[in-house]
Amino acid sequence: MKRMNSEKMGTMPVNKLVLTLSLPMMLSMFVQSLYSAVDSMFVARISEDALAALSLAFPIQMLMIAIQIGAAVGMNAELSRRLGEGRRDLASSAANHGVFLALVHYCIFLIVGLLFIRPYFELQTDNQAIIQYGVQYTTVITTVSIGKFMQIMYERILQSTGRTFHTMITQGTGAVLNIILDPILIFGWFGIPALGVLGAAIATVISQIISAIMAWYINAKANTDVDMQYRGFRPDLQMIKRIYSVGVPSMAMTSITSLVTIIFNNILLQFSSTAIAVYGVYTRLQGFAFMPVFGLNNGMIPIVSYNYGAKNKERVTQAIKTSIRYGATIMFIGTIVFQLFPDQLLSLFNATGDMLDIGRAALRIISISFVFAGISIMLASLFQALGNAMFSLWIQVVRQLVVLVPVAYLLSLTGDVNAVWWSKLISESVTVVLALIALRYVYNKKIAPLADDKSHELHRHSKQSLVADK
After folding, report:
1. Distances (CA, A) of 50 to 47, 145, 168, 273, 288
2. Can you tell me the distance from the alpha carbon of 420 to that of 404, in angstroms, rounded to the nearest whole number?
3. pLDDT at 82 over 70
4. CA–CA distances in Å: residue 360 to residues 22, 278, 366
5. CA–CA distance, 5 with 411 (Å, rounded to integer)
6. Where are the chain's structural domains?
7. Is the pLDDT of residue 460 over 50?
């Protein structure tokens, strides 16, 4: 019988396995960060108001990703754990339920896009240009988000079974296509009418739909570890509950980030729309440092889940140490780039003189926190993989709502916009301390006992073998 592709997660040397699973994901997610960054780069050529509109739209994009990534994380952990236990039937059920939940989530945001986009922008600003740009862009990316929801889920199914190279192909294709379509549709090349901000949105959803189709096809033709069967599908409430038990905290964490971004934007509105544009640029640029770390997470989660299901303490521990080391290194490199080249990075977004002055300080101050953030991100994903997602949620609540928002508001009272950026470093410093405390608890509670569990399993199997021999 042909050995399943997923079995390498229990046999391949851990360092090589982490790199094998993570590098394609890191590369593809690095390219994936070009989606919003390239949109903003081209839209910045229209006007600073257009760039500010995309900054205000970003929390809605984050919320969409939060909902779907949360479900995908829950599906990922369930699928990988069942494969580790040798339960192909339950692994296949997890994959099919993941696709079902993606459709449900799309329907929710279809309604959001049709009914709530204009009120959302009108609540934040009375600048009619920003409102108009924001409504055009955000209505399209919500009502035609089916591609995004399905792309994320099908790619996570591939990743859960160790096929991260395929996800690199699907994500990379979508990002490159978006880069090609953006200037064509925004500025009206090759005889196509110039659509402006609307063109950026259309380019994004077209790219996402094509990526989703590719990911579906690869699963149907190349993924032999799970059976993707839709005919006669019936939702299993217990399976959905298990997926959401891991996924909802992840959804909540990123949803909190979305809410905090809205609040942060409103704090910056006290200074100028340029400050909002700068923060929007930062959120795009930081993706080039953070997205590879999220890609590393995507490689770590199935390794930890699989080997935890197989009760292999040594491989779980090695995967954690290796992933944290790589994550911290990536973020340190990001810090160096932001410290040395802030003007060059801001110039990618057609920055004015005021935008350069505000943005230069913002990038340098916030990037000091990158290494702390990278460690916290890795540990949050570890807790999710081990079924302790509530730890990740509470750490995020403290980081964002208890520390970041109040500190940012208090620093804004100084009247100096540059003071507000220090709130990021303060919140990340508190978060990494809490995450390390939680790690110690989770290690003693779940990982350390695996040695005894493994010994018990070996002893049980030995007794069974002796009985069989007799």
Report:
1. 5, 21, 31, 11, 22
2. 10
3. yes
4. 32, 9, 10
5. 52
6. 8-458
7. no
